[in-house]
Each structure stands twice: as structure tokens, then as C-alpha cells.
Amino acid sequence: MRRWRPHPATILAVAFIAIAPAILQSFTITLMNYIGIYALAALGLVLLTGCGGLTSFGQAAFVGIGAYATAWYTSVHGGSPWIGLVLALAFTGLIATVLGAATLRLGGHFLPLSTIAWGIAIFFLFGNIDALGRYSGLSGIPPISLGPLSLADTTANYFFIWAVLGAVMLLSRNLLDSRQGRAIRSLRGGTAMVESLAIGSFRMRLAVFVLAGLLAGLSGWLYAHLQRYVSPAPFDIRPGIELLLMALVGGAGQIAGAVVGAAIVVLLKNILQDVLPPITRYSAQLEVVFFGILFVVLLQRARGGVVPMLRRFLPRRDPRKPALGPPLPRRAQAASAAWPVLRIEGATRSFGALVAVNDVSFEVRSHELLALIGPNGAGKSTLLNLITGTLKPDAGRVVFLGDDVTHLQPRHIAAKGMGRTFQHVKLRPNMTLLDNVLLGTYCRTRSGLLTGALRLDRPEEKSARAEALRQLERVGLADRFAEVAGNLPLGQQRLLEVARALAADPVLVVLDEPAAGLRQLEKRTLSDLLRSLRSEGMTIVLVEHDMDFVMNLVDRIVVMDFGVKLAEGLPAQIRADARVQEAYLGGVA
Amino acid sequence: MTPEIALLLVQDGISTGAIYVLVGLGIVLVFLVTRVIFVPFGDVVGYAALTLAALQMKQMPGTVWLVLTLALMATATEVHALLRQDRSHRVPKALMLYGLLPLLPVLLVWLAAGRELPMLVGIALTCAITLPISPLLYRVAFRPLADASVLVLLIVAVAVHFAMSGLALVFFGPEGFRTEPLTRAFFNLGAVGVSGQSILIVASSAIISLLLFAFFEHTLAGKALRATAVNRVGARLVGIQPSTTGATAFLLASALAGISGILIGPVTTLYYDSGFLIGLKAFVGAIIGGLVSYPATAVGAMLVGLFESYASFFDSSLKEVFVFGALIPILVWQSMRKGSIEEEIEEEEHEGRA
Amino acid sequence: MSALLSVEDLHVCYGKVEAVSGVSLEMQAGQIVTVIGPNGAGKTTLLAALMGLLPAKGETRYDGSDLSGLTTEERVRRGICLVPERRELFTEMTVADNLVLGAYTRWNERASVERDLQDVHARFPRLFERRTQLAGTLSGGERQMLALGRALMTKPRLLLLDEPSLGLAPLIVREIFRIITGLRELGVSILLVEQNARAALETADFGYVLETGCIVLGGKAADLVHDPRVIASYLGGKGN
Question: Interface pTM (ipTM) of the complex?
Fold first, then answer.
């Protein structure tokens, strides 16, 4: 959606919000104030957890940091709430950067564990610092004032909070649709693919982590000046879980999900607080129990959340072809004919007792289509991973375009002009075909987070989209650009991966068993594509073990078996080579 | 700080550390076999301690209601699953296993509560009623999600923790309790005074760790647990059902929780939410062991106990901040030992896809 | 005599792809049957479905009764055992423990298990030598032997082997296939999936050719070896 076409549901929602104070009771408006504030913090989690795939239980702690920063400054020091805002954002931003830098390299479940750790530590810190009033907290916080207008009453706060929330939601939506936003969305699902596109996954994670922290800080600022009083209790682990629950209930990864989730949880709590006390004197505890059980059931039954369910009932809109722009700048210089594009020298790699690659050497000349073949278990994929930098060799060198890249990170090698596909297709199944291929253009574009959020990146986006569509056309998938990648059959997913690799304008493309599992027709499409790429001047290395596919397609073949280079030469020579025949066809007689 | 105080702190640290060892072992065991980071483990420890306290005060421990409710939910879940899979012939066995079996300790505790009980009987009853809690939680909350990611399981575990701790407040109220000392013996070894209780705690911890070790090394059931932890698919291919090993792991965890609760009851005052904090601190110990190694977990848990002891000497109110804050550099250190992309690729190459 | 294994119109999805489309085959007790075909043909998926690791549509009958409701573990108890492509050994446990765990379902047959253990040691002397070593330290060929040995400890009547020659040197492949042939005397029927067509067809009684999820050829292994299509695609004819 390039030009703004607000969804009818959005228009209705905005209208409702605008007239709500006129039609709803004051108490409901108060509830809506809290919904707005929580939605802001939950939005941070939607971005962090839903899009970025990083679970944090400590979001409430960050809200607390923002709230306490402004509370301390305005009530203890009598300063202006606007400076309080600056302080809130500064503190949360700084602490998020430090914590993120320290913990975001943690894989898998270690990261959320660390968020529990510092979430609790920060809570106890709030409760034990005299200057922050210990467990009694700070009171006497002044309201926010916009010039002469003081946001002391409910309705004034209401409009301010929802205006801020609306603006943040708009910016977030823009961000997610931009270059950096796509990179953030691509984080979820493993770093190997991301790094192969020259995207620095650690920096992206840190960026979205700090962003989530800033949103929490903003939420805390609003909270402090709404309540006019802060204490440690609302910033414990339990509210942190509630925020996560809001994001998940609404629909992680959906911006609207933050609001829907916050609304559902707040309203439910309110209902429980009305319903339970007459029944039992343990209402507060049972409320907690109820939410705990709700959470478990939600995760067991409806992990996607409410918004995706609702979406099914809303009118669907046809995707419009994206507006296109002038082409992106191409890579400076392709390899000259005399130079080997890639040279492997004595590469060796073991996994425990198994020597997967054993002293392999060969070169790849420019404009050539070279196949690396061998039976299953020969070490081809391992060698490929050594070439692209995803694995490091125990001995030997990899020289790409004249530079020793043996010890470079995969994303640096990718940035130099090496594209790749994977043996087990690595796509983002929940992103559209266009978005998946657009990820490939990351290294050719430069818009940052702010540019994306403020939508100042439109010209570059148009060029990038033009490029992505061009690549999709090349692999024959252009008319399905708006479909979600997970719906494609395997053959087309492989083609999509190729399109994505091409979108980066590579000098060398390395394809890992692209024909595996493809039917005859799909194999023919693939080999035609590879031929046309070669005639355009691309250098291609193809790992395969389907002899038929390779024989009539490639210029040269390198054969591997048991990690060793067995033979190298023209297809006809390889076909006639006795050792190759033995390796592939060895019998038991 | 005088040498006497230092020694006292060491003693204190080692006793608490010994308890954290048991809890930490339970956490790692459950994680390795089922990939669940069992956050509510601490709550179960708390329940055990508070149950013993209630029995010693001649009151009915609310734990019976917990076990009853869980038994009901587990039976319902199991029967529903069996009917859906068209295996109604297994329903009677399920009813017995999930319905009747947990009721036995409930009945015993029901009958015994309110009377004067010898200490050992109280301890035995506490163990008995703690035992079903974790396996029932497993059946209700975690087994339906057996194929989910570690992350989803973690979130569910946290949710279960809230439910458990909320109920703990209902059952036991907001006051704190301490159980009777296990022994009032006191020994003077030269200049140092050592309490019999500390010795008992450390000895129990050591013996149980050794028993666990023997179980894993020399019994078929123990080996089956290890096998499931090492390779789930391989285990299924030799006929080991993940749900059986999962339930066994949780049962062992319950046993460890029960014993830990009994050992820690006399040492500190416990509130309805103290269990959670104990679990978290033991967790720190398990993290030091990287969640993969039992000996490293034991060492880590000991270190946490000692660190906490010294930290509380300096500033008792900030000791939690220190302990949890210290987790961060430990996690950083753990992460520096691993390279994440290499891991991803290696995993694909050399383990199963399961 | 009713077939030991009979598969009719089997459809198996792997992710969103239908990897096996309407496969039918039959095996009699005491036979060695092989399914050959290129990578990605669906061979591994077929075995995984027979073992209950993947959901499948179609009829699968083992020893006359329907397999469809049974879990993997129950199939193991009925005498079906799979040695998967990746072996799935317990790499951090000893060779001895791996073998003992193979007999997990037979925990109450102590004497019989002990006898079978001796038999495995006799068949695979190298495993006996390395019995206290961790499975992860074994070489490729030894791992394959351990995987076979562990499978034998489940006392299978039907053994499913997924690419037993994978990653093994020709000499070892010869040894493995010799052992496989020798399993016949134990009364074990074998369904063998292989990329190495020659070795497979020289060992088996019957063969099927699987290509992109469908059976395209079937018959006596001795006949298939001389079939021009098989020779062309898999036995070093034109193009190979």
C-alpha cells in the first residue's frame, strides 16, 4: 500500500476514539486512558517479540524506569514534565542499550531468561532506593501542560494519550514497511538467512530492543503524569507478563494487536474486579490465577492472537501493484574474465571425529557455471558453508575477488558480492514474496529507522521495489508478489530464494541443491534461469548431486566424496571418469 | 569482617547453596528431558515448606485443594485426549493414574491434619502430597504443547507460576512461616560452631545428588531419561515415549522440590511467594552450568548460595538485586562461549530435524 | 500367506509438499525389499510414515492389522524398527548403553535380552571392543553398525533401513550389506531404501523405484538390474 489508503476499519476506530468522551462515562474514559498507556508499552513488545522474535519479560521494568525518571525530576526537583520526558527517554534508551549490548547475543531461551533477571533486579532496585521513596514511591507529580493547557482532567489526558498512541502506531506502521522494518521482521526465524543478505542481525536486534525500551519509557512518562503517583508495584515481573499477554492476545506482530490486546486485558480485569469480590475475598489472587490459566489456554489454542482472527471477517482488499521507480545503482565492477572470482585453497573442516572437508582446493572463473557434485555425505554443503563464511575452516583459505575472506563474517562476505541459497529453504513464510525479495536489496539501499518511520524513504523504496519485481519476473513469480511465501510449493520457494539472492546484485551466486525435491518441469525452469543468468555475466557455483540436472548445464564440474576432491573437469571428462563412477555407483559384488 | 563471621557466612552460604543444588538439579533435569524451563518449580518448593508448616501448626494445608483441582483437570485433559484419538479402552487406566492415585496422599493428609504429628510423619505426608503436583502440571499445561518451541513453553511456565502463586496466597495467606528445626544439635569444632541442621542439609543434598546420579547411570529408566534428553527422535525409535519420560522427570522434580522445601523450611521464614525467588536463585546456578551439565549446576548453585550469604551481610535489602544482577554477566559469559550461527548450521547438519 | 507389510495408496505430506503420492507396495515375511530412487523422491518420508513419525493417509497393514492408529512407540513394540538416515544415536552415552536402550521395550525379558546382546556382539565385534566409548566418538561405519545393533535389540520382525550406505567407504558398504543379508537368518524382514542402486538390488529379493513420490517400477530385484530404464537412470548408463 504505497499511497495511504486507510482501511475502513481504521477509519471507524479513529472516529470512535474521537467521539468516545462524548458518549461514554467518565470511568470508562479512565479505563481507556490506561488502555492507551498499556497499548504503547505493548506496542514495544509487538515490535520486539512479534516482529523481532525476541521475548522480553522486562518491559514493565522499562516502563518503571521512564515513570521513575520523570517522577523523580518533576516531584522531587520540581522540574517541567517535558524535561521529564527527555530524561525518561534518555534513561530507558541508555539502559536498554547497555542491557541489550550485553545480552542480545544470547541465543534461544537465554535471552528471555535474562529479561526475567534484570526485570526482577530493577524492581528490587526501585523498592530499595531512598531517593525513589522505596516501597511507598513518589507522589505529587504534576500533570503535563501543553502551553496554557494543563492535562489535569481525564478527558484532556485522554485525547493526549490517544494522540500520542496514534502517532506512534502510524510511525511504527511506516517503519515496518520500510527497509529497516523489513530487516527487523526478518529476524524471527534464525540468523543464517539474515546474515547471508548482509544484514547485521545483532545491530538490528539492538535497535528494536532499544526502540521497545523507548516506547516503554514513553508509556511510563504518560503513566506517571496521569496517576500523579508512582510506586514499584506496577513494574514488577507480573505486569511485565501482562504486557506480553496483551501483545500475544492481540496478535504478536500486529500493530493493532497492541491496542486490541490491551483493551481485552484491561476490560477483563475490570470485569473480574466487579464480579469476583462478592463471591470471594480472594478476588485479587483469583484474578491472577485466572489470567495465568487464560494465558496457558491461549498459547495452547490460539497462538496467533485475536487480530488475525478478526481480519478474516474484515473485507479483503486486492493488492495493488507497487509504484515503481528508477533502478537501484548496480555494483561497481563485475569480475574481469582473467581473474578467478573464487579460490579455495586447502580447505579443511571437521565435526568431532568426522572430517567433513579434507584439504579441498579449486577455483571458480568469472562468468562460469560450476557444479560441485558428490554423493550424499560427501561434504558439499559443508564446503559451501565454508565458502560463504557461515562455518570457519580448521585450515586453508577462501579467496573471493582477490581478498582473503576466510575469517570474515558471512554478512561481510555477502556485502562483497556473494549471494547464496540454502539447502533447507530459508524464507520468511509470513512475509509476502515481494518483501522476501526486498530483503535482498538491503545492501543496496540505505534508509535508516527514522527515515523509514517518517516515510522519507519513498523514492528509494520505489527503486527497491522495482528491482524486487524485476527479479520476481525473472523467476516467473511476479504475479504472485503479494502472496505470503509460506503458501508456495517447494519448487517455487527455491526460485524465490534465487530471486532474493539476485536482488542483491551479486558477483557470485552459490546455490545449495536448488533442484532437490523439484519436479521435472520445475527443474527445467531452474536450468533455463541459470543459463540465462550465466549469459548475463553472472558467476554461479551449484552444489548438486543430481547428475542429470548438472551434465547438460554447467561448464565445469568438481566432484567430491568423503570430504575429498575426487576429480575436476569438463562434464564429458567427469562422466567418463572411473573413480566418479565408482563413487556414485559402487556395488557390493 | 572477623574470621568468625566469615566462617558463619560460609556455613550459611553452603547450607542454602546445598538446597539450591537440589532445586537446580531438578530444573536442569526437567529442561533436558522436556525442554520446559520449569519456572513454577520454586513455587512447588514453597508449597512443600508451607504444607509442612501448616501440618505442624495442626491446620489443613491448602495444598490438598491444589492437588484435587490439578487431579481433576489432568484427568479431564487425559480422558478428552484419549477419546479424541479413539482410544477409549485406555480411559479406566487414565482415571486411575490421574484421578485416584493423586487422591491417596490427599486422603492421608486430610485424615492427619489437625492432629499432633511426629516430625517424621509430617515430613512423609508433605513429601507424599508434593509428589503429584509437578506431573499433574505437566499433563495439564505442558504436554499439550510438547512440540512447541522452548520459548512458548517458557511463557506457559511463567503463566503457570502466576496461577500457582496466586493460589498460594489464597491457601496460606500473606503471613510468613517457619517450620520446626529438623534438629537442634549443635557442634563446636574448635573455634567454629556448626549447627546440626546445616550438616543435615548438606548431607541430604549430597546423598540425594548421589542417588540421582546412580539412577541415571545404572537403571534403565534413568538411562531412558538421559536418552530422551540427548536425542528425542532416537528415543522414540527404541520405543521410549516422550510423555513417559516427561512425567518421570516431573515426578523426580516434585520429589526434589518436596525435599528442598522440607530442608529450607526451618532455615528461613517463608511467604507465599518465597518459593519463586528460591527457584530463580537456583536457576542462576543452573545457568552457570549452561543448563546442560549437572556437576556445573551443582557448583553454580553453591556459588549462588555463598554469594547471597555475603551479599546479604553487606546490604540485606539489596541482595536480590545483586544475585539477579549478577546473572547478566554470567549470561554474557555463556554467550561468548558459543557462536550462534555456527550452532544453527551444526544443528542442522548433525542432529535430527525433530 | 498374507503379507507382512501391505501399503495401499499412501499419501504423506512433508510440510506443505506432498512427498509421497499414492504409493502401494507389499512385502512378505522373510524378504529383503528395496526402494531405490533419486534424492528428494520421498524415500525417507515413506519410511518415516511407516514408522508413524509423519501423519499419512492411506492404508498400511502390518501382519494383517491396521497401523494407522498406532504411535511410533507402539509400532516398535509390535516389531517394526527404523534405522534412520541420521542414525539418531545417543551420542553422549556409551555404546553399551545405546544397545541396552534398544531393548527398552523388552525390559521384562532379561534372559532373552542378554542372549540378543551376545548375538549383536558376535555380529559386530568392533562394537564389543568399543562398548565403553561414547557413541559420538565412533567412525561413520561404526555408527552405522551401532544403529543396526541397537535396532536388532528391539527384536524387530520388520526392519526399515534408510540409506544404510550413506557416507560410508565402499569397503564398509560391502560389510554392512553382508551383515544385512545375514539378518535373514534371524527371521527379520527388511525394507531397504537406498540411493546406491547397485548395492541395494544385489542384496534384495524385490525392488521398487520411487520418483517424485510415485512408484514407477516394481519387480524382482534380479529383473530390475537388467531393466534398461533402471540401468539408464541408476546403474551408470547414459548420462551417468
Answer: 0.90
